[in-house]
Write a structure and sequence with these properties.
Rossmann fold; alpha/beta; about 30% helix
Length: about 180
């Protein structure tokens, strides 16, 4: 069981952070040419779709979008569940010579990003891969750094960051919880 300590971001703050990230992506890439936004399921998918929509509204164009399910690319597959829940990867765009912006909710150890990179490379060879995250909480185990960060939230190993999205949870907010003896 976990106990909520605080709300880090409400829905408005999340929207502002995603809008800022969208503008930063456009600025760094000088527009949308050869840009592909790819969300990491589950909540990275929800956030990635929002970023793609915001960029599309700013640039008045449709931004190519895809979503990855990295379950079979994880290095801890044996430890997460006897029968892990597998969603479907939806990547109907060629990644070759594209700038792929991976989107995830929380950057922690870097292992999810490593798995996503492995899967992306199975689809082709992008020109560049960038990383956008809503929350960077530190504690890296792999040399991974986000290009775009909504908010840096230094945490202890005893804390959990929970991102809630309308699509997955029926509400939008980011909370910090105290980890109990047993992980959820």
């Amino acid at each position: 069981m976990t106990k909520q300590k605080a709300v880090i971001m409400d829905a408005k703050q999340m929207d502002r952070a995603l809008t800022r990230i969208a503008h930063e992506i456009l600025e760094r890439n000088k527009g949308t040419q050869d840009l592909l936004i790819v969300g990491i399921k589950r909540r990275g998918d929800s956030l990635g779709r929002k970023i793609a929509r915001i960029i599309g509204e700013i640039e008045k164009t449709e931004v190519p979008y895809g979503a990855l399910d990295i379950t079979f690319y994880r290095d801890d597959l044996q430890t997460i569940a006897h029968q892990p829940v597998v969603n479907q990867t939806e990547l109907n765009h060629d990644v070759t010579n594209k700038t792929v912006v991976l989107v995830d909710d929380v950057l922690y150890t870097g292992r999810t990003v490593r798995a996503a990179l492995d899967e992306i490379l199975d689809f082709g060879r992008p020109k560049r891969v960038e990383l956008a995250v809503l929350i960077d909480r530190g504690h890296r185990e792999l040399p991974v750094k986000a290009d775009y960060v909504g908010k840096n939230v230094p945490t202890s190993q005893k804390e959990i960051i929970g991102v809630r999205t309308m699509e997955e949870d029926g509400e939008e907010k980011v909370i910090i919880k105290e980890k109990a003896d047993e992980v959820e």
